[in-house]
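Async update (no meeting this week)

Hi team, since we skipped the sync, here's where things stand on the single-chain job. The sequence we agreed to prioritize is pasted below, unchanged from the tracker. I ran it this morning and attached the output directly underneath so nobody has to dig for it. Comments welcome in thread, and please keep replies under the output.
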Amino acid sequence: MAAYGLYTHIRSNRRRSIALLIGLFVLVYVMVYAGALLAEALLADAPLDELLRAAAYDWIKALPFATIGAAIWIAIAYKFHQSMIDAITGGHVVTRNEEPRIYNLLENLCISRGIPMPALRIAEEAPLNAFATGLNEKQYSITVTRGLIDRLDDAEVEAVLGHELTHIRNGDVRMMVIAVIIAGVISFFGELVFRLFFRASFYRGRGGGGDRKGGAAIAIVIAISLIVLAWILSVVIRFSLSRKREYLADAGAVELTKNSDAMIAALRKIEGRGELPNATSAVMEMCVDNPRSGFTDLFATHPSIDARVKALIDYAGGHDPGPLALPEIAGPERSGEQQPHPSGPWGPMTGRQQGEPSGGPWSAPPDSPIPGPWGPRRP
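Output:
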């Protein structure tokens, strides 16, 4: 199940992505028409066919302005999207000297396949997750959380990095960023139209002209329905861009690392532990896992971990250890950083300060050659 060998599937995904992105642009113009129809309905209580014709005329006049506005939005996002994502997640660029372990793993993967190395970022967050961003080779970046670095071993981290590199190489990252940008335009236009509508309704109500009858009332219902439909479709389109891509990215990680067990173990460790506290839904859609459960799973952007693990076992071999329980880690987990230590019956525990497992009531007292009452400390 080598992702880089599935060129037919990759080309098919890219064609569908381009078609969906064109659909997103169409939705922007639907929003503009809905806004024009609302404006006409609020200005005059005319027959519906007259309002529809007037709205179409207004729509044609507004198209250049809507196009320019959307283009400016996209240009700003193109230039500053990484800065905005970093502001949300707390990500920052790291060098080899700062994070030699992760940097070397990423560099080795890139060298082995002749892939330009993206920037490496660390988000100082406890959840286990990672994501790639960027629109071209100069912008591509992989962000990994501190929790993932601390909880996963080298082979598992390498698998996650391979997953994100596959997203970059397959063009998934570019498409997702563009889709999020355009969906943001739709949300902006939708909110703007609704604000103008409610403000106009408020002033008309104060002036005694708030009751709309006949064609105007129907036009208002049509306009609001178009706005809601466009917003729902934009969300559905964003979701449809990422679900199947995760299977390809998992497979690409196995193809890069030749280690299906590492990818499976990484997914099991990340399972249920990836929700970034300050991240928007758009950022979570880019992550290795976007955890959802219950009703919200209907709108999940990623297949379930069980489904992804099953696909890896069926097509790439490997073994599923099942859901993995991880020990709780309290506080920041950075090497060399002093940690607060809970006290045991013989005083403070010092194991965590050196990156070792914490002691407990079954440990020997610190700095004491005498074992505890239940025998020597277990390794």
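Quick observations from my side:
Strands lie at 91-93, 119-123, 130-133, 141-145, 343-344, 347-348.
Residues 3-87+176-240 form one domain.
Reply here if anything looks off.
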